[in-house]
């Protein structure tokens, strides 16, 4: 019978996430030969290959994917155990992993995390940016304690807690013909070219569908992958764009932008926090969840 070794599990997870033994070894500060030995020992003990090996690197076999899923859950459970016991002995301490979409990071999450960590100096919080669909997948697979994503990607396999809202707006520079408007519909913007966002598949779909319903064409001048790139292109006068008001307002003066609220029904967005099981959260993760919910604007 295979005796579970936390160090070997951690190294196996690193190899799967990094795609090569060399990168995993560098990440874990250990010799590549030692990593290879650990993986070989797992395969020998379980009697089945865990990795497909090629010149490009390694990928988990079906058996390896099963081990990876359970290994992540075991490592998170061990962290929760350590954190909970530490709280009895030393007060609040621990490590919380958060997956968040770009909108939440640009709009409000840094301020909430900053206030949390200042109030909880012994709790480390790691945040990784992902698309909303990948946030859900990551939490489901045990890669993180909490996820912050759009409500539109909710699934019955996780618990989803209502969190925050945002409001899409047209963003133009001060010289744009629409800069004087106080509100607007997407249809009224279609005479002018737009900047699209590669990270917002849902927004792109809403815009395309609305244009089609109106019998109009949504003309995309360029696609960008970051908010900053969109601000700069709008500032230069290349085109207009649609972004959450909450993400743009603080930069509007810096870039000379006008932020005009969209009145379309789909322009109001909702964020949720996703977890596998609230009752199973570590004390540190539960503390962060409560903090995030307490900071929701009234």
UniProtKB/TrEMBL annotation:
**What PANTHER family does the annotation carry?**
HTH-TYPE TRANSCRIPTIONAL REGULATOR YBHD, LYSR FAMILY TRANSCRIPTIONAL REGULATOR
Give the residues annotated as coiled coil.
none
Name the GO cellular-component terms. cytosol
SUPFAM superfamilies assigned to the protein according to its UniProt record, in alphabetical order:
Periplasmic binding protein-like II, Winged helix' DNA-binding domain
UniProt family annotation: Belongs to the LysR transcriptional regulatory family.
Q: What is the name listed in the Swiss-Prot or TrEMBL entry for this protein?
A: LysR family transcriptional regulator
Query: Cross-referenced Pfam families, in alphabetical order?
Result: HTH_1 (PF00126), LysR_substrate (PF03466)
Q: Which organism is it from?
A: Pseudomonas bharatica CSV86
């Amino acid at each position: 019978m295979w005796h579970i070794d936390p160090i070997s599990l951690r190294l196996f997870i690193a190899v799967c996430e990094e795609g090569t033994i060399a990168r995993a070894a560098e990440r874990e500060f250990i010799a590549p030969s030692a990593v290879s030995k650990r993986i070989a020992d797992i395969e020998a003990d379980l009697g089945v290959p865990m990795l497909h090996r090629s010149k490009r690197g390694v990928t988990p076999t079906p058996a390896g994917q099963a081990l990876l899923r359970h290994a992540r859950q075991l490592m998170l459970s061990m962290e929760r155990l350590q954190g909970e016991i530490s709280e009895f002995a030393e007060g609040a301490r621990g490590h919380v992993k958060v997956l968040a979409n770009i909108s939440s990071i640009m709009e409000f999450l840094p301020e909430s995390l900053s206030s949390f960590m200042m109030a909880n100096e012994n709790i480390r919080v790691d945040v990784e940016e992902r698309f909303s669909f990948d946030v859900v997948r990551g939490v489901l697979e045990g890669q993180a304690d909490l996820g912050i994503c759009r409500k539109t990607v909710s699934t019955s396999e996780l618990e989803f807690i209502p969190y925050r809202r945002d409001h899409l707006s047209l963003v133009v520079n001060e010289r744009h013909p629409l800069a004087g408007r106080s509100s607007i519909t997407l249809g009224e913007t279609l005479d002018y070219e737009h900047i699209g966002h590669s990270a917002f598949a849902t927004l792109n779909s809403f815009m395309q569908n609305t244009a089609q319903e109106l019998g109009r064409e949504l003309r995309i001048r360029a696609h960008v992958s970051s908010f900053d790139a969109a601000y700069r292109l709008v500032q230069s006068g290349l085109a207009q764009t649609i972004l959450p008001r909450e993400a743009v307002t603080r930069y509007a003066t810096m870039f000379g932008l006008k932020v005009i609220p969209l009145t379309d029904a789909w322009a109001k967005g909702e964020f949720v926090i996703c977890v596998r099981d609230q009752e199973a959260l570590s004390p540190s993760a539960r503390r962060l969840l409560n903090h995030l919910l307490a900071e929701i604007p009234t």
